[in-house]
Amino acid sequence: MHEETYDEMHEKITKEPIDESTKEPNKEPARETPGESNTPDIDLQGGEAGVLLIHGLTGSPFELKYLARKLHKAGFSVKVPLLAGHASTLRQLRATTWQDWYVSALKAFDELCRNHSRVFVSGLCMGAVLALYLAYERQEKVSGISLMSTTLYFDGWSAPWYRHLLPIAFHTPIRHFFSYKERPPYGIKNESFRNRVLQLMEEKSIAYSSVPFKSMYELQKLNDNVKTLLHHVKTPTLILHSVEDDMASLRSVRFIERHIASKSLRTILLNDCYHMLTIDNQRDVVEKETIDFFNEHKQT
Fold first, then answer.
1. 34 in any annotated domain
2. CB-facing half-sphere around the CA of 201: CA atoms within 13 A
3. Domain residue limits at 254
4. Which residues pair with 210 in a beta bridge?
5. How many CB atoms lie within 10 A of CB 25?
6. What's the CA gap between 280 and 143, in Å, rounded?
7. How far is 75 from 7, CA to CA, in rounded Å?
8. Which CATH number belongs to the domain containing residue 92 in this structure?
9. Which of 74, 71, 79, 148 is nearest to 110 (CA)?
10. At 272, is the secondary structure helix, strand, or coil?
11. Number of structural domains the chain divides into
12. Which sign, positive or negative, has the C-alpha torsion 48, 60, 96, 234?
């Protein structure tokens, strides 16, 4: 069997058009205007069960595009909304709260629920934390969750040395003016694809290269909320995390394992990728495990 190279993958996720037959009838295509995002929501219709994918902080649907297509090919309807304030300007991101990001995800979830009796949720990085909060709020309406690189703690090996001072900065006016500049390896272990992504970041609004302190403060507030609510989350849960994650150590995984109330919990640790599981060396494992887990719980 032919194994895709990263160049081939790059061609797919950046140039291959979405099949128009998979879109909802009479739905207007996403329009692009100057100053607006060129990474519109992904909406792939056709499956009996639905999947909501939630991207991470400063990211966009781009980082989940490949997983979305694999899920759709496996028979799921898939939505990947662009979260409020993302893929536009840092000023707009600073103006949003974690509640704004959550509402973006919740609207897409409710749309899936209107047409599907079973709906699953998967998130990457901050998206995984939002998935946990959604599972807490909607309980039995969420058939299962897949948590990828959950960032309850910003403590990976490439996190800045001053991260321990962030809680202090969060409570000062500094949070409104400063940003954390992303730096290598940008969550991607594969050097070839990392370079491709950096090029696309310069050409398109697929992600911000900086994280405003204000946004990190909002993420911290979201994390604090979810940590206190985990014992109410009973949804079947799949955890996918790299032992080499450069943004979030296994501390986040262990916290979830200890505190979540789910009776169906599976943890898979990867060993040849960094934070961006969906576009790194072991993306095929992430796709297969997520699809298998959702198929398993689609029948129960």
1. no
2. 16
3. 6-13+39-298
4. 181
5. 6
6. 27
7. 26
8. 3.40.50.1820
9. 79
10. coil
11. 1
12. positive
Burial class (CB in 10 A: 0-12, 13-18, 19+), 260: buried
Q: Are 12 and 66 in contact (CB under 8 A)?
A: yes
On whether residue 19 sits in a domain, the answer given is no
In a domain, 26, yes or no: no
Domain assignment present for 30: no
Q: Decide: 178 and 274 in contact? Cβ < 8 Å.
A: no
Structure tokens at 272: 């040849």
Q: What is the pTM for the complete model shown?
A: 0.82
Q: What is the pLDDT of residues 260-299, one digit of tens each?
A: 999 999 999 999 999 999 999 999 999 999 999 999 999 8
- Please work out, in degrees rounded to the nearest 5, the angle formed at the alpha carbon of residue 54 by the alpha carbons of 134 and 244: 110
110-126 pLDDT, tens digit each: 999 999 999 999 999 99
Per-residue three-class SS string for 2-59: CCCCHHHHHHHHHHCCCCHHHCCCCCCCCCCCCCCCCCCCEEECCCCEEEEEECCCCC
Q: Are 278 and 124 in contact (CB under 8 A)?
A: yes
Q: Rounded to the nearest 5 degrees, what angle is found at the Cα of 83, between the Cα atoms of 81 and 84?
A: 135
Phi, psi of 141, deg, nearest 5 = -70, -20
**Predicted confidence (pLDDT) per residue in 3-54, tens digit:** 444 344 434 433 443 333 333 333 333 333 223 334 589 999 988 899 999 9
Q: Which amino acid is at 206?
A: I
